[in-house]
Amino acid sequence: MAVYALTGFSLVSLLSFGYLSWDWMKPSLVADVATDPMEKSPPPTFTRPPHIIFILTDDQGYHDIGYHGSDIQTPTLDRLAAEGVKLENYYIQPICTPSRSQLITGRYQIHTGLQHSIIRPRQPNCLPLDQVTLPQKLQEAGYSTHMVGKWHLGFYKKECLPTRRGFDTFLGSLTGNVDYYTYDNCDGPGVCGYDLHEGEDVAWDQSGKYSTFLYAQRVSKILASHSPKEPIFIYVAFQAVHTPLQSPKEYIYRYRSMGNVARRKYAAMVTCMDEAVKNITWALKKYGYYDNSVIVFSTDNGGQTFSGGSNWPLRGRKGTYWEGGVRGIGFVHSPLIKRKRRTSWALVHITDWYPTLVSLARGNLSNVQGLDGYDVWPAISEGKESPRTEILHNIDPLYNHAKYGSLEDGFGIWNTAVQASIRVGEWKLLTGDPGYSDWIPPQTLTNFPGSWWNLERLTVGLRKSMWLFNITADPYERYDLSEQRPDVVRTLLMRLVHYNRTAIPVRYPAENPRAHPDFNGGAWGPWASEDDGEEWEGGREPLKSRNKKKKCKICKLRSFFRKLNTRLMSNRI
């Protein structure tokens, strides 16, 4: 009883006595580095297309970078951001596959059929093959293209692999999360396989190497073997800092004073990743790329709070449409930026990188129709106004409908039971179930037993299905204005209706037993033949079942393996 009372008092204290009144513009947290008034030399001009390095981290929370006031050490990221442009009005998606698909295609997930959940290892699904990807456009512009890290955009057919979607080389994992040393991934009890690939082959020989180090070393190797006179694009999609929480011991030791074990391991992983970025930056300078380079840094979604991450002072966490799930860490570092060392409040979304980077590369966008992204380079480099005025966070018709939502609550315009979220100007609207809604302070503030779990018990708006916030004035989403401003609600609901009319059916097929790693030599990888058609059409139900003969073959194969396993076990006994 005493612990619960203390927990309740602590939460009330946090909400009532200022912890949630963090100044959004506080200098110590998002300050620009002062520029020497005598430093007037203009940045280099674009004499040739720049080298582009895009760094994407996994599950890194909004609070988990030094310049956001974190207790985690990120000196490299802090310096790169301070010398470049910090993006403090930057949005991503709440989970892995949606962010990656929108980065690669420049399209909202409602326009690729990936608006529900993620692509799971056993699903016959991948980024639609009719989409022209960012690396493919850069290849057209004369770039050498390379990917290192986590793909998570499907792999059931070889046509889905990174090397078939625009990358000249690939080293990384195809699924959503793997062991950082062994590269094993289990998609349920007994469904385990190895997942590290070099090109289209399984990279068995790399097992045992910590992935963050391995990926940084690969980037250095690529730069060493390429000519800086020729443009290069490297997409570095770190596995860090997604679970499992694993880090070399020397990094964990730095945070030995942290009482929360998950936070301690997580912090070690972030700092390790920061040093990997340092090594990449060093390689750019060593091999002659840096002066004509653009480095983009982005997170893929909000931090997972029960795995050590923190999105403080934002509301929510990974997997939610609250700001803690969709507002990302982002910055651009480049000698080519005209107005460096500043913070940008221009509205930017992850879909914007496609047209922005293709334009920087002097590529051709005239033959690409239906992009949802904008070229935001003038806003980043010169401080001009962003061309973006709104963001569709998503519309997910398959997500569990909110119990208290209805068409009536949506003024007959929109069924508020449907999970959806949109931002227009300074206003943000959420309908349905936006996901876990609490404000979760950094775990280091709450070291008494059980308290940081209890802090998560606050539940707001149990009987609601619609919220409206002025995000500019209320970035922490504390004051729901849906009842005070029905006029704004109606306007944003109409925008949802507009976008929903352009949505294509959801692609979310049932899992297929043929994907089991046991049928693929013990590794995750393509399992459908190139002759197999689409497994899913219309997002409503599977296409006609495969003929019984094919199904029977699989059943016989599975039966064979079961019998073989039984005999082996009998021999062991």
From TrEMBL:
For the Sulfatase N-terminal domain, which residue ranges apply? 50-361
On whether Protein transport is a keyword of this UniProt record, the answer is no
Instruction: Name the cofactor(s) required for activity, per the record.
Output: Ca(2+)
Q: What highest taxon heads this organism's lineage?
A: Eukaryota
Q: Show the InterPro entries listed in the entry.
A: Alkaline_phosphatase_core_sf, ARSB, Sulfatase_CS, Sulfatase_N
Q: Which UniProt keywords apply?
A: Calcium, Glycoprotein, Hydrolase, Metal-binding
* Span list, region Disordered: 519-544
GO terms, molecular function: metal ion binding; sulfuric ester hydrolase activity
Q: Which Pfam families match?
A: Sulfatase
Quote the PANTHER family the UniProt record gives: ARYLSULFATASE (PTHR10342), ARYLSULFATASE I (PTHR10342:SF68)
Instruction: Identify its protein family.
Output: Belongs to the sulfatase family.
Q: What is the protein named?
A: ARSI Arylsulfatase
**Species name:** Polioptila caerulea (Blue-grey gnatcatcher)
